[in-house]
TrEMBL record:
<dbReference type="InterPro" id="IPR008972">
    <property type="entry name" value="Cupredoxin"/>
</dbReference>
<keyword id="KW-0479">Metal-binding</keyword>
<dbReference type="InterPro" id="IPR001117">
    <property type="entry name" value="Cu-oxidase_2nd"/>
</dbReference>
<dbReference type="InterPro" id="IPR034279">
    <property type="entry name" value="CuRO_3_CopA"/>
</dbReference>
<dbReference type="InterPro" id="IPR045087">
    <property type="entry name" value="Cu-oxidase_fam"/>
</dbReference>
<keyword id="KW-0732">Signal</keyword>
<dbReference type="Pfam" id="PF07732">
    <property type="entry name" value="Cu-oxidase_3"/>
</dbReference>
<dbReference type="InterPro" id="IPR011706">
    <property type="entry name" value="Cu-oxidase_C"/>
</dbReference>
<keyword id="KW-0186">Copper</keyword>
<protein>
    <submittedName>
        <fullName>Multicopper oxidase family protein</fullName>
    </submittedName>
</protein>
<dbReference type="InterPro" id="IPR033138">
    <property type="entry name" value="Cu_oxidase_CS"/>
</dbReference>
<feature type="domain" description="Plastocyanin-like">
    <location>
        <begin position="182"/>
        <end position="336"/>
    </location>
</feature>
<dbReference type="Pfam" id="PF07731">
    <property type="entry name" value="Cu-oxidase_2"/>
</dbReference>
<dbReference type="InterPro" id="IPR006311">
    <property type="entry name" value="TAT_signal"/>
</dbReference>
<feature type="signal peptide">
    <location>
        <begin position="1"/>
        <end position="23"/>
    </location>
</feature>
<dbReference type="Pfam" id="PF00394">
    <property type="entry name" value="Cu-oxidase"/>
</dbReference>
<dbReference type="InterPro" id="IPR011707">
    <property type="entry name" value="Cu-oxidase-like_N"/>
</dbReference>
Amino acid sequence: MVALSRRRFLSAALAGAALTACARHDAAPAPARPDAGLAEAIARTEAARPHTGRTVTARLRAAPGDLDLGGPVVRSLAYDDRVAGPLLRANVGDELAVTVTNGLDHPTSVHWHGIALRNDMDGAAPATPEIAAGAAFTYRFTSPVPGTYWAHPHSGLDTDYGLYLPVLIDDPAEPGDHDAEWIVVLDDWTAGVGPDPHQIFDGLRSRRMSMHGMPGMGGARSALLGGDGGDVSYPYYLVNGRIPSAPTAFNAKPGQRLRLRVINAAADTAFRVALAGHVMTVTHTDGFPIEPVDADAVLLGMGERYDVLVTAADGVFPLAALAEGKDGAARALLRTGAGSDPGTDFRPAELAGRVATAGALTAAASVRLAPKAPDADVQAVLSGGMMGYDWRINGRPFTDAVPLTVHENERAVLTFVNQSMMWHPMHLHGHTFEVLRSDGATGPRKDTVIVAPMQSVAVAFDADNPGVWMLHCHNGYHMDAGMMTTLEYV
Ligand code: C2O
Ligand code: CU
């Protein structure tokens, strides 16, 4: 009921400030936001985005289903009964009109991760009301920037049950230097085969004193992540919804240039990704071009995306996504000729080669922030630990959060100060930031950045998208435990 009246309020608010004033009195209970000023600012910002006049419509149904992971058939949640979901694709400036039907037994939402879209379509409450069970809602927005994105609910642990899908935004003016595209969506999977995500979360929260009980990691370490790989050991790691023994195969021809769009949709797992027998040219971080760099592998925290180019060799080549600091891997195959699959235990030598990490990459000149002195400094101190499972930002859980604030048009520097012994993939909604590299060089443009234990990472962004935006750790369990706050315009 609340969700419905809020939504009715919201659609009225979008029609204009005068209407908003009326709706505000009519709607019960009246939500605190958006107010008339914010609705006007959202409409003004939307008008400034590019618009092609074309609308791309799609329908998504979030529902429980029997999902075939390539052997095990599990009862869990997915969009349109498919793990890794249907692909959503449009051009920059197209209006996406995505009608989401909620076939779950609880409210849900769809958050368009990484897209700097209008705040009231972000798919995270309170900016966008949740969709009540049995109801439907049409998200309408445009993306101002091309790139590799993805979508998932912003409600509890739903993403970890299998609700996610890739979202690609193309720039027709820049088709890219490749012959084919391979979308690679990575996940850690337990629902229906191990304890379900809620049982894991309850175990993490109640275990308090034990560091080695189930679900635990038993002391695995990752040099790249600066300590523990994660909090949870998963039964399976998936590429495009398939377990390692039943890998998805991508068919291409030798010599073709392939663009891999790699998306980490996992809850608690970073992946180190390599393609056996191939050097990768890393071209994009979180959708944005970088100065291309050759690497043997890339590291992705939860929520991150990397685009890489490879020139296909002749044969059968495993793509391996090592669960970083854990025991296990996801895998898929590139098939361009004769050859056999070396099997699930095979680990490409490339995994131990040069690993591209965000801190050593540089944004392409076309997407660097204009030089400007910062107007505002905001800080997010990250704390918490396995004892009590009390993940916090600035000392507070989300239920008690004090919003970070910026003024419209400011250049803000946001510093993540990690005072915990765990790494955190920190994600800001509605904006992309430039990572301020510790060596002073220009960093990559991103919306999610890995912050290693006891380290700080500073990022700069322009406050050009008014609204109430989530800022959180993209570890699903840390987020649910409270490692989230908001960034608000004042
Ligand atoms: Cu992937 Cu708050 O988002
Ligand atoms: Cu975290």
